[in-house]
Amino acid sequence: MNTFKAQIHIIGVNPFVFVPEEVLLRVFIAAGKEKGHIPIFGLINGLPYKQTLVKYKGDWRLYVNVTMLKKSPKRIGEIVEISVDYDPVSRAYEMLPEFEKLLNRNQTAERVFNSLTNSRQQEIIRYLARLKTEDALIRNCTRAINFLLGKERFIGRNNP
């Protein structure tokens, strides 16, 4: 595990810390890449988290959300202790049978879904997988199909 101390900064409304170069290099080696989003896990002030390292405006940043650190937007300037390591565990969600059934019944929606990037497909599946009730799942699977057909907004988007 790679441990360091960093000051919390903010960009827009997003608190973050810069990750030291030597830590980044070790994470890149473990991940086998230096581009794109890199899944990580670790501790922040002794509490576990899972997050993604992203490069924005030329710098790699570890965004610190409120699930990682309570009241993080109000803690700008605070020094925190962070450990970070590459997370090799896949974060992909499996296709939900309820959604797959609806896709199989509508070739147009299925064709549009299959033409989406993997990350966009995962965004839809992840949203559906996180729903808490069967009613919400069925209702939102129908909304997702309508979204793919260009009939409705879904996941904050107007069209696929």
Notes on the protein architecture:
The chain has 160 residues and is an alpha+beta fold. It folds into 2 domains: 2-86, Elongation Factor Tu (Ef-tu), domain 3 (Beta Barrel); 97-148, no CATH class. It is 35% helix and 28% strand. It contains 5 helices and 7 strands; from the N terminus they run βββαββββαααα. A 7-stranded antiparallel sheet has the order 1-7-4-5-6-3-2. α2 packs parallel to α5. The chain is elongated. The mean pLDDT is 93.
Layout of helices and strands, plus pairs?
Blueprint: E1 2-7, E2 9-11, E3 14-18, H1 21-31, E4 38-44, E5 47-56, E6 59-63, E7 79-86, H2 97-105, H3 107-115, H4 118-129, H5 134-148
Antiparallel strand pairs: 1-7, 2-3, 3-6, 4-5, 4-7, 5-6
Helix pairs in contact: 2-5
> What is the percent of helical residues?
25-40%
Counted up, domains total 2
Strand content: 25-35%
Distance between the termini: 39 Å
In CATH, the homologous superfamily of the largest domain goes by the name AF2212/PG0164-like
Task: Write out the strand line-up for the largest beta sheet, numbering strands in chain order.
Answer: 1-7-4-5-6-3-2
Which overall shape is indicated by the principal axes computed on the Cα atoms? elongated
Q: Return the average pLDDT rounded to an integer.
A: 93
The appropriate CATH architecture of the largest domain is: Beta Barrel
Low-confidence stretches: none
Number of helices: 5
Q: How many individual β-strands?
A: 7
Main sheet makeup: 7 strands, antiparallel
What CATH first level of the largest domain would be assigned?
Answer: Mainly Beta
